[in-house]
Amino acid sequence: MSDEGVDAFALVFHTDIFLLAVASVFALAALPRAIARFSRAAEWRHGHILRSVRLKTRRPRGPPPRSAQSPSSSSDPSTSTAGHDGPPDGVTSEESHTYFSHSHLLRRSSTRTRPTAWVLPPHVRAWSAILPPVGGVLRYRLDAGFSIGQALVLTVYAVTLVYASFYKSNPFKDPLRTGFVAMAQIPVVYVAATKNNLLGMCVAMGYEKLNYIHRFAGFMLILLSNVHGLGYVYEWTFQGKFFVYIKEPQVIWAFVALIALDVLWLFSNSFWRRKAYNIFFSVHIMCFIVFLPAAYSHQKSMLPYIIAAAAAYGLDHILRLIKTRIFDARIRPIPDLTITRIEIPELNAGWRTGQHVRIRVLSSAMGWFGWAESHPFTIASVAKTPEGLVLMCKKAGGWTGKLYEMAKVAGYGYEEGGMARSVMVVLEGPYGGPGHAVFASYSAVMFVVGGSGITFALAAVQDLIQRDVEGTSRVKIIELIWCIQDPSSLTPLIPQFTAMIQQSIYAPLKISVHYTRAADAPPSKEFLPPGLTLTAGRPRIAKVLDAVIQRAVSYGSGVKASMDITGVVVGVCGPMGLGDEVSQIISAVDPGRRWAVGGIEMHEEYVILSFDDATNCYFCAIRFDFVQRFLVFADVRSLLLCVGFSVGDGTEPRWIPRGRVVYKVCKLLQHVFLHH
Q1: With 60 as the cut, is the pLDDT of residue 626 above it?
Q2: Which of 34, 185, 372, 396 could cross-link with 221 by S-S, CB 3.0 to 4.6 Å?
Q3: Regarding beta strands 444-450 and 339-344, do their DSSP bridges make them parallel or antiparallel, or are they unpaired?
Q4: Is 475 exposed, middle or buried (0-12, 13-18, 19+ CB in 10 A)?
Q5: pTM, to two decimals
């Protein structure tokens, strides 16, 4: 009980209820789309556990059909020609960099020219499409990859904790309050950190998209714990009994827990995440393991919160074990893209478009500890195809560099009758993905990807083509924009792009590749198939989106001409800046056109390439520096006001003997936080 008669435990309990209620609102908002998605039995089998299934093989009955292009997708003479009887000079089918040809795409269309029956997926619009003005505001970016919507979530969370901490309470006279509030954040930090995220399951978001909540909750836990500890140190020192209390066992355990949190914070900044990810990760695990028993030894009343955190952590590891698979994979380099292609033909089902897996390579060629490192990569293939699960790992650091060099050793030679090199890998997943959104339920789909983000688009487009042939897709138009630096990056994927374009009959596919680096010689466009263009300069995304909207409203062949218009979804995968640009373009679409097409939705996947040996372990991390710095400054002001003086213009406080010392300490803490 505080000095003002407020029951701290009851206040914190009601604060937890409020936060759970807020989370429940988001879960209820996602419920209609969840019901629509899982109303189809097939969705229960995808996106949860990787597995192997027996594929039905069919013999082709004739030559593959040519693509049925839409009226607006005719090829530009300046970028392609009608004659494309052969591949470009020096390009063979072998350079598609896959152990299997892409003819499995063409067989389906030759054996079944049209679906026997259309079984269309139900479509439920997202709230951003139902309320476009609100969606546009929430999508607005305050920083790279950080939107107003995310800022509002963190602001509500922070204001709730500040209220619970300082309502009728002085942290230097009643330090117990901040300890209770910090205690209540322990389950939040652990739950938001797990790969199999209970919160993410409820709101249909992958753990990578909730990482910003984990980081911010951890920051608040450490901040409140330090305020709690400093409050008692201040009180005991003022009473002259510091060395008396410091000898008590529960106080010793309190300092052990506090030191564990502070060490964790020191090794959690961007320097360690980028320069020495293994150290960052190891310190994270060790400190969290030390923290829980130390916190319990300090205060027995924390047991329910500690059990909740431990249960979430244990459940996550049990599910991760269930999702883990060990297979022999075959690897080979793609020099033009500096990418290592990993194929596991035996693993061919269980994932959805846009999901990723975490992979370990069990080989001495990866170094002393490289075999123990787990790295996330987007699945670049569609389920239930002969090539199985495919990953394309961009060479971006030490681990991926070793993997690429290991693949180059075998090159394109033969090893015991099989191409390239076989290695044993450990796969964990799948994770992430588009949530409850079903791309096949929209009238038009547009992908804007950059660099290695093409892996996301490849899997998504192939999945749409497969669903279209099976008669389970509403999509009328598929548009793919790929931004690359060098035009030579297109060469390895021309065979796959060609097969995809030829297969896209009921939903014509158009691929636009844009390169930004000046080439030594103009790239040859003579043998590019209709529907595939190569252009210098940045893409005009707004113009392409406008054309997609127009075609979605007016175009349709056969049964699709009479289908309801169910909107456009734009998938983005690449640097954060690309997502920011696309978000701004979508928000600027004319409201009338947006309404006519049934709404425009956006799904983002980020590719963050590290600058050194850490590679891309935080490929979907979201920055919250803007809000963090604002709240640190606000908390420093609150602390200064609580000890009895006002900050005034923010430079010097009104003079109080013991206030000046506290002020200097707080300013030092503020400086440290702002430069963290």
Answers
A1: no
A2: 185
A3: unpaired
A4: buried
A5: 0.79
